[in-house]
Amino acid sequence: MTHEKAIQTEYKGYLFRSRLEARWAVFFDALGIEWEYEPEGLVLSDRSYYLPDFYIPKFHCYFEVKRKGIRGTEEGNEAIRKISDGEYTDSWAGIICFGDPMDDDLHIYCQETDDGGGGSYDDPVTIGLHPDTKEPYLFAYEDRRDRSFFPFFGEDMPYIPMVTQEYGEYDYSDFVGRRVQKARKLARQARFEYGETPKVRGKR
């Protein structure tokens, strides 16, 4: 089995460890989502150290980017173990993605509450725009239950802007419209050779 070598890529003054990471930064910019690249290291429950790729302030989530081809492998499972550690220790929320934004293979690990209580939560999600506010939002498209989401339980716990299908009120196409599809395409087609910087409309 051959391993794809990551290519360091410069974008907006940041030197990303891979072109895949840079493509996610392009996607975030296209949707006006603020991001921080490798902002801080975390100590996991086994006392090892972990440096996630991004922190997304709007979502209150750390964000890990991995190649599509490692899903289901030992390497992929180890990445999931690290990004999900905050869920099991009730200390922070994380999202892992396999592939680029167009692959849309994301999974969130956080805390949730509903009328019956609360606890740990993990499910597939997508990044889109809320159909009412047009603000960037997370959509748990396989979950029909109505609930609220947080990175941890405690005083002043921030709300993660994420909704479920809520018993049929929303569906995938409500959140992933033309603007999101365009942002995904822009990220996949972005060229970084010879110092090129993709032209992205959006605020950062």
Q: Can you put this structure into words, describing what you see?
A:
- Strands 3, 6, 7, 8, 9, 10, 11, 12 and 13 form a 9-stranded mixed sheet that branches. The chain has a two-stranded antiparallel ribbon with strand order 1-2. The chain has a two-stranded antiparallel ribbon with strand order 4-5.
- The chain has one domain.
- The protein has 5 helices and 13 strands.
- Helix content is 21%, strand content 29%.
- It is globular.
- A hairpin with a 7-residue loop joins strand 8 and strand 9.
- It is α+β, with helices and mostly antiparallel strands and 204 residues long.
- The mean pLDDT is 92.
Helix-strand layout with pairing:
Blueprint (H helix, E strand, L loop, with lengths): L8 E3 L2 E3 L2 H12 L5 E2 L4 E2 L5 E2 L3 E3 L4 E6 L7 H10 L1 H4 L4 E6 L7 E9 L2 E13 L6 E5 L7 E3 L11 E3 L7 H4 L2 H12 L15
Parallel strand pairs: 7-8, 11-13
Antiparallel strand pairs: 1-2, 3-6, 4-5, 6-7, 8-9, 9-10, 9-12, 10-11
Give the ordered list of helices and strands: EEHEEEEEHHEEEEEEHH
Tally the beta strands: 13
Question: How far is it from the N-terminal to the C-terminal residue, by CA?
Answer: 39 Å
Beta content comes to 25-35%
How many H/I helical runs?
5
Q: Which structural class should the secondary elements be placed in?
A: alpha+beta
Fraction in helix: 10-25%
The best one-word shape is globular
Low-confidence stretches: none
Radius of gyration: 17 Å
Main sheet summary: 9 strands, mixed
How many structural domains? 1
Mean pLDDT rating: 92
